[in-house]
TrEMBL record:
A Pfam match: PH_EXO84
A GO term, aspect molecular function: small GTPase binding
Domain of life: Eukaryota
Entry's Gene Ontology BP terms: endosome organization; exocytosis; extracellular matrix disassembly; Golgi to plasma membrane transport; protein transport
Family annotation (SUPFAM superfamilies): Cullin repeat-like, PH domain-like
Keyword field: Cell projection, Cytoplasm, Exocytosis, Protein transport, Transport
Protein name as annotated: Exocyst complex component 8
Compositional bias of kind Acidic residues: 301-314
Region Disordered, residue ranges: 283-314
Principal localisation: other
InterPro entries reported for this sequence: Cullin_repeat-like_dom_sf, Exo84, Exo84_C, Exo84_C_1, Exo84_C_2, PH-like_dom_sf, PH_domain
Species in which this protein is naturally found: Terrapene triunguis (Three-toed box turtle)
Amino acid sequence: MALPLSEGVGGSRLRRQLESGGFAAGEYVKQLSQQSDGDRDLQEHRQRIQALSEETAQSLKRNVYQNYRQFIETAREISYLESEMYQLSHILTEQKGIMEAVTQALLLQADRDDPALGARRAAADPHSNPFLPLSAKEAAASEEGRQRTLTTLLEKVEGCRDLLPESPGKYLVYNGDLVEYDADHMAQIQRVHAFLMNDCLLVATWLPNRRGAYRYDALYPLEGLAVINVKDNPPMKDMFKLLMFPESRIFQAENAKIKKEWLEVLEETKRNRALSEKLRLEQEALPRAAPPPPETANPFDQEDEKEPPPEEETVDLSLEWIQELPEDLDVCIAQRDFEGAVDLLDKLNEYLGYKAVSQPVRELRAKVDERVRQLTDVLVFELSPDRSLRGGPRATRRAVSQLIRLGQSTKACELFLKNRAAAVHTAIRQLRIEGATLLYIHKLCHVFFTSLLETAREFETDFAGNSGCYSAFIVWARSAMRMFVDAFSKQVFDSKESLSTAAECVKVAKEHCKQLSEIGLDLTFIIHALLVKDIKGALQSYKDIIIEATKHRNSEEMWRRMNLMTPEALGKLREEMRSCGMSSFDQYTGDDCWVNLSYTVVAFTKQTMAFLEEALKLYFPELHMVLLESLVEIILVAVQHVDYSLRCEQEPEKKAFIRQNASFLYETVLPVVEKRFEEGVGKPAKQLQELRNASRLMRVNPESTTSVV
């Protein structure tokens, strides 16, 4: 065969064969099976294909990693290029404004040198020069009028009074109605009214039920605002875009003329703002002579002079790691390196500390806050129930810890508990309902209480320093317990299981609930409160069954001794009565297989004691009166039947037999019921004592035909 080649030659040939365009897997396997000498050849060929597959996978991983690194580097370069383009655009705008200002200054100087030329220019176009000198009175009147107009307009805008503090230099330049469109889908969003002031642009939305009134929407400083003309593309026309890093908005004017006015007045106002800001900075940079202190005759004034306040420490933002911080945060978020992102934020907060907040620091904070919102959204998605719920509560620790470090402990707690609630609900829903109820309850309790215990331990680990979140966990545990009880009751009580099965199921649930005490969490009172209604219903239902069965036996009572036929049956009955606590039952057994008691009384004794034992397994204080009243009702049915039979029976032998059964009830059964109830509950039952005392047999005249009870 052609397979026994060297590993290198065989591997290269195999690679070429698999990479060929006409490769057919079925034909290849068929040919290989025909050429192989046995199982060993096929195993060797399989190993070569497996090695080739692993080599290909490693090569793909290396290529993907290399391409991913190149993508990250390219994204960083694009970000650098975008910032440089923004800077270049602002520089060109400033240069244009400076050149126009210089031109206006030269024209103004020429008009001063040649008044006749200035008069001719003013007569030709009185609006051509906005810098014509005004008298002091006219300038003051103009300034006051513009501020009055601004105040009047802004009174119609709700929510902007605190955002626009009154300053003597602020005035309204232009305003008008616009329609905002979505930047991605070009769908109309809302009608707005824009107010352009000499230093900012205010956007307000229309109030639908109030004509001429607006609500504050956004405020943009002119320094960071870029205006872009949007070409007409019918039906989308008369639009322009405003860029405010990192967002943009598109507005539509009423017609082309108003659009042109908006573009021109925005650019003109931006230039004037840049020029006035530059002049202000130049004036502040000029050295000023300190004014001489006023002469005073008070010699103590010099002593009262205070030292000037120390200068605020400036923040150096030229460090390389600060310049690259926004991009590094983007990379960490893209690579899901949440710890690295939060470490960078902590490093920045530690560096800035309590230093002075300048405009560059605000701009940096704005960029970083946007990344913080993105990081928070990613962490919130990691904890959402839509994500995979596998891995248990520890799988959420990473996202929860980073949210806590970001100062969002409340949100982290809420999302963690929602995630765990969804996990518990899914686990309960995925349980298979077995034929045996007790087996299903064992699985249900194991799944639920194990999940609850793991959640509690993880919660204690994650939120150890946030004691305020523990109340939220208690509320969540109560709702989770309600979910468990719904599934429990549906399987145990709604399906009408026997009282013994229900008692075993409740016992299992209580035992699992006690496991939570290992971490100091006791939810027993919650499970009692949630189950009390269903257990009351089960006790009353079983009580009704016993009463109905007892009445049915009473109706067929013949007052005859029991004949068990065989010694084995008699021994079995003795054992059953002994297990019920009737230690004196042997005195009621006769020769052979006879029992000196009625079948009705024996059946009633076994059924009543079984009910009491199962009810005590279900017992907790809220069920005390329900259990006691049920016992009294059951016992009264038997006692009243015996008393009635004594009064009505005329035959002496049967009457003596009835009195013997009554003695067994009053002197043996009722004391055992009282004792067992007191042992199970922890306190005596006065109602049972009163019932026994009131029903005590009175001695009667043997020759009398009636009996008194």
